[in-house]
Amino acid sequence: MKLYDYVLSPSCYKVRLMAALAGVKLEIRPVDFHPGAEHRSLELMALNPAGSIPILEDGDLILTESAAMLTYLAAKSAPKWLGSGTPVETARVQQWLSFSHRLTANLGGARLHEMLLRPGDIASLQAQGIAALRELEANLVEQGLRGFQFLASNRPTIADIACFPYVALAPDGGIPLDSYPAIRLWSRAIRSLDNFVEMPGIHRLHELKPEPYAEPGEV
């Protein structure tokens, strides 16, 4: 399985992370996204006419949407990451996969503006990103009241992996996470998973220290 990858892309990272968690070995084909704009080259446009990465190639199968890649990796090698299969949980997973596209647009757009000077209305992007984070925070608080740590279930699913990278990197777009204790606890739960892998700006938990706003006994 070959992944056309840019190390600083959260969308590429979520595929690398899912592969690591599922025990899938990827052949990494680095792409000079910035400043080389290799994703717009004839070679890569032939694979993905949209001119975006990641691209996942497995034999004759070519996938160009990260949510589809997460689903494929889980279905092929770690079905538990798809959820329990009940109608309710399946719907919740799909809802958060859709929500992750909003995070790519607003939090990701703000990050591209601030880090790579991409054009955009930074105030609008940040406002939309904050609204999305508030929605995510509210859901995680409700999940916590049910005794669940994760977005769609009492265990991690591809929904968490789809949403995690752009949330964790929100400060790169000028949106701090200090006001979202449930999100920070969720992020720690993901980073403490076995076989978790890092990307620049997202690190493993070397020590499990209590969050400043955590309830006693929580980490």
From TrEMBL:
<dbReference type="GO" id="GO:0016740">
    <property type="term" value="F:transferase activity"/>
</dbReference>
<dbReference type="InterPro" id="IPR010987">
    <property type="entry name" value="Glutathione-S-Trfase_C-like"/>
</dbReference>
<dbReference type="Pfam" id="PF02798">
    <property type="entry name" value="GST_N"/>
</dbReference>
<keyword id="KW-0808">Transferase</keyword>
<protein>
    <submittedName>
        <fullName>Glutathione S-transferase</fullName>
    </submittedName>
</protein>
<dbReference type="InterPro" id="IPR036249">
    <property type="entry name" value="Thioredoxin-like_sf"/>
</dbReference>
<feature type="domain" description="GST C-terminal">
    <location>
        <begin position="86"/>
        <end position="216"/>
    </location>
</feature>
<dbReference type="InterPro" id="IPR036282">
    <property type="entry name" value="Glutathione-S-Trfase_C_sf"/>
</dbReference>
<dbReference type="InterPro" id="IPR004045">
    <property type="entry name" value="Glutathione_S-Trfase_N"/>
</dbReference>
<dbReference type="Pfam" id="PF13410">
    <property type="entry name" value="GST_C_2"/>
</dbReference>
<feature type="domain" description="GST N-terminal">
    <location>
        <begin position="1"/>
        <end position="81"/>
    </location>
</feature>
<dbReference type="InterPro" id="IPR040079">
    <property type="entry name" value="Glutathione_S-Trfase"/>
</dbReference>
